Amino acid sequence: FLSGKRALVTGSTSGIGLAVARALRDEGAEVILSGFGDEREIAALCDELGATHVAADLTRLEGCEALMEGAGPVDILVNNAGMQHVSPVEDFPPEKWDLIIGLNLTAAFHTIRLAVPHMKATGWGRVINTASAHSKVASPFKAAYNAAKHGLDGLTKTVALELAPYGVTANCISPGYVWTPLVENQIPDTMAARGMTREQVVNDVLLVKQATRKFVQPAEIGALAVFLCRDEAQNVTGANWSVDGGWTAE
Ligand code: NAD
User: Fold this and answer.
1) What is the CATH number for 97?
2) Which of 21, 34, 67, 101 is the most buried (most CB within 10 A)?
3) How many CB atoms lie within 10 A of CB 56?
4) Residue 181 has what pLDDT?
5) Ligand 1 contact, 240 CB (< 6 A)
6) Is 148 inside a domain boundary?
7) Model-level pTM?
8) Does 10 map to a domain?
9) Given phi > 0 = left and psi -120 to 50 = alpha, else beta, which region is 160?
């Protein structure tokens, strides 16, 4: 049902973004991938998905502008690129703060402001922002990430209100822990910050929050993104959808 639609998914060379890109492609959308990684692997992904790839560092304004220029007009914009750093607030490196706010929040502002004119002109558009359970509640040692994701929720609501008259919706998807490289890579830092073993971090920090006691699978996020693109979801806007195994219900 998405044939004829062009979808840009940031951070789609890996993890959740790749699953979202696959799901949109499976519904017929033309997909534009973005993100870093091994060149040969990205070329293989482009072949598999019939996609193009635009590389850009989205922590920088010029990178965001280059991405939107390279991607061309898009009907579906999925702001998904993100990074994490785990550290007590007093030791939190200021440059990490800037990078995380830049990638997880400011980049979405830039891509949205550059994508919106086409969506308004055609009278149809979907903005989907990958936020996090950390857009609703906090965990210690993630000052920048929590701040960025809470901010992304506010940005999404604002865009939803502004664009409601134009057939454009904007929503957040807020996963709990999804088994991706982003989660795997923060385990050593969390072990250090909390003085725990790997097993303790997985069971007592990560999955302890999810009543289902299961990691979310990337494809589950892809399925929700597809739903948000349906015409039946035209009145779903300004919402923040939890896919967190019950974490934020408590
Ligand atoms: P991931 O590390 O697997 O993928 C991150 C993607 O972002 C990659 O494609 C990477 O190349 C890209 N990226 C990294 N730095 C970039 C930069 N400077 N410029 C452009 N692109 C860059 O991560 P993931 O787990 O799939 O996370 C995707 C999103 O989901 C993030 O916004 C993350 O905060 C959010 N999220 C993840 C989880 C989880 O448990 N994995 C939970 C909640 C929210």
Assistant:
1) 3.40.50.720
2) 21
3) 22
4) 85
5) no
6) yes
7) 0.96
8) yes
9) alpha
Q: Is 166 a catalytic residue?
A: no
Instruction: Give the single-character DSSP code of 14.
Output: S
Q: Which residues of 11-41 are buried (b: 16+ CB within 10 A; e: fewer)?
A: bbbbbbbbbbbbbbbebebbbbbbbeeeeee
How many structural domains are present in the chain?
Answer: 1
At 112-159, the pLDDT tens digits run 999 999 999 999 999 999 999 999 999 999 999 999 999 999 999 999
Question: What spacing in Å lies between the alpha carbon of 81 and ligand 1's midpoint?
Answer: 4
CB of 109 closer than 8 Å to CB of 151 = no
Name the residue range of residue 23's domain. Answer: 6-177+217-249
Q: Is position 187 within any domain? A: no
* Residue 55 near ligand 1, beta carbon < 6 Å: no
| Token duo for residue 29 | 């959308």
Residue 193 lies in a domain: no
Element (H, E) at 192: helix 181-194
Task: Say yes or no: CB of residue 1 within 6 Å of ligand 1.
Answer: no
In angstroms, what is the span from residue 180 Cα to ligand 1's centroid? 8
Task: Give the model confidence (pLDDT) of 228-250 as tens digits.
Answer: 999 999 999 999 999 999 999 99
